[in-house]
């Protein structure tokens, strides 16, 4: 819907295999009454008000492979992290199963490690009310 008459579609990979850009993510979240807030990684993660954040989307480099042959290339990959109870889970589709990260201190350390990899980006998934009020800080 973002570019219905464009060929190739500028919002996904040339091969049409996903790798959607952030505009697609934001439009999909908006349809659910949610928003993605870009996190400036120069800010300390301790400033995050985790009780107002529903989940996290990370855009991270992912190695390209042909079968078992790893190529010296990487492409962007979306990873979701969200809490279930008091434990945060890594819901990366490349993992066999969701992987527990731990509680808030472990989450902040996990995010710190991921953001140290260049070029990685972090988006906070929040309700529209939280986005408008800025209460994720």
Give the helices and strands, then pairings.
Layout: H1 22-31, E1 34-39, E2 55-66, E3 69-84, E4 87-90, E5 99-102, H2 104-115, E6 121-127, H3 128-133
Antiparallel strand pairs: 1-6, 2-3, 2-6, 3-4, 4-5
Polypeptide structure, described:
This protein is α+β, with helices and mostly antiparallel strands. The chain has 3 helices and 6 strands, in the order αβββββαβα. It has one domain: Cathepsin B, Chain A, CATH 3.90.70.40. Helices cover about 20% and strands about 35% of the residues. It has a 6-stranded antiparallel β-sheet, sandwiched between helices. The radius of gyration is 16 Å and the shape is globular. About 15% of the residues are buried. The model has no long low-confidence stretch (mean pLDDT about 85).
Strand content: 35-45%
Q: Based on CA inertia axes, which overall geometry fits?
A: globular
- What's the number of extended β-strand segments? 6
Class per helix and strand makeup: alpha+beta
Question: What CATH architecture would you give?
Answer: Alpha-Beta Complex
Q: Please report the first level of CATH classification, the CATH class.
A: Alpha Beta
- Main sheet: strands, sense, barrel: 6 strands, antiparallel
Mean pLDDT, to the nearest integer, reads: 87
* H/E series: HEEEEEHEH
For the termini, the CA-CA separation is: 32 Å
- Helix content class: 10-25%
Domains, number: 1
CA gyration radius, whole angstroms: 16 Å
**CATH level-3 fold name:** Cathepsin B, Chain A
Please list the strands of the largest sheet in the order they lie side by side. Answer: 1-6-2-3-4-5
SS element count, helices = 3
Extract low-pLDDT stretches. none
